[in-house]
Write a structure and sequence with these properties.
This protein is α+β, with helices and mostly antiparallel strands. It folds into 2 domains: 180 residues, Fructose-1,6-Bisphosphatase, Chain A, domain 1 (2-Layer Sandwich); 129 residues, D-Maltodextrin-Binding Protein, domain 2. It is built from 7 helices and 17 strands. Strands 4-3-5-6-7-8-9-10 form an 8-stranded mixed β-sheet, with helices on both faces. Strand 3 and strand 4 form a beta hairpin. The longest helix has 23 residues. It binds 2,5-anhydro-1,6-di-O-phosphono-D-mannitol and magnesium ion (MG). The site of 2,5-anhydro-1,6-di-O-phosphono-D-mannitol has 13 residues, from strand 5.
Length: 336
Amino acid sequence: MPADFNLTYLDSNMQRLRTFLDNHCDNPDLVAVIDGLMVACKDIAYKVQLGGLAGVLGSAEQINVQGESQKKLDVIANDLIKQALRIMPQVKGLASEEESDAVACNPEGEFLVLFDPLDGSSNIDVNVTVGTIFSVLQSEPGADPTYEATYLQCGREQVAAGYVLYGPSTILVLTVGKGVYTFTLDPRVGEFYLQREKVRVPATTKEFAINMSNQRFWLPEMKNYVNDLLLGEQGPLGKRYNMRWIASMVAEIHRILTRGGIFMYPYDSREPQKPGKLRLMYEGNPMSMLIEQAGGKASTAYENIQEVEPTSIHQRVSVVMGSAEEVDNVIRYHKK
Ligand code: AHM
Ligand code: MG
C-alpha cells in the first residue's frame, strides 16, 4: 500500500501554500496576487494533463509578437492568467510573452505581473514538461499600466518570482526575496503543499545544458568554453561533464535547483541583431532571481542579468545560469 494511502490533510503537518504565504510574506496584497495567479496555474495544469482529451494540443495557427508560431495551449494559458489577474484589485497591469502590448488591469493596483504563460511549449505535443514563469514588480504610484515604460525595471526590483512546472507532478517554485521554496500540487484537493525549504544550488557541477546545434553560431569565447568542457579530465577544466538538453527552460532550471548544473542560451549569430533567444522580462529575470536566491549565479556572460536595464518588454538576453563556480568559469572565458 502506498505510504500516503490513508493521508488525511486535517491530520497532516503539511503546510498549504496560503498558510506559508501568510506567515512568510509581509505584504498581504502580494500574497493575494500569488494566490490569484495559482488559480489560473491549477487550471492550466488540469488542461495540460487532459492533453488531447481536452482538444488542447497542436498549433493555434497564428504567430505571436515574438514571431513564433503559437500552440493552442500558449493561447489558452495566456488567456487564463490574464483573466485571473485582470479581476484582481492588487494588479495594476500585466505583460506577457504572448501579448504584443502591456495590458492595463486595475488603476489602483500596486503590482505588475510579467509572465511566460507556457515556457517550452514547442514540447507540448510530445508530452514533455512545460511551465509558467512569472515575475512580480511594484509599480510607481500613478504610473500608467498601458505604457511600456511602466514595466521597464531591472530584475533587482522584482518583489517575487517563480514558475509552475507541469511535469509528472505540478510544482510551484517561488521566491519573495527570502530564499526559494517549492510546493507540490495535490490534484485531489487542489492545494499546493510546501515540499522544500531554502533550496540551495550546489556551487560546483559536472552537468551542462546548451543547444549544441547552435555551436557554429556562438561567439568564439563561448565556443572555447564548451570545447574545453568537452575535453573532460584532459582539458583545462579538469573534469568530465555530462550533458542534458530538454529544450524547456523551466525543466532545466528545475533540474539545476534540484541537483546543480549550468544552463546556457548564449548570444548567437542566427539573428545577429538580437542579444539572445530568451526574453529578459519573462524568462531571464525571474529565473535569475530564483537562482541567486538559491545561492547560484545568473549572467549574460558579461554582466549580471538582474542588472540589465530593460529598454523593451519583449527584450531578449543572453543567459548563463546555475552553479556559481561554473558560471564564473564562463565569465572568465569571456574576459580572456
Ligand atoms: P518559448 O518560451 O517559446 O517556449 O521558448 C523558450 C524555450 C526555452 O524553454 C528553451 O530553453 C528554448 O526555448 C529552446 O529553444 P531551442 O530548442 O529552439 O533552441
Ligand atoms: Mg519561454
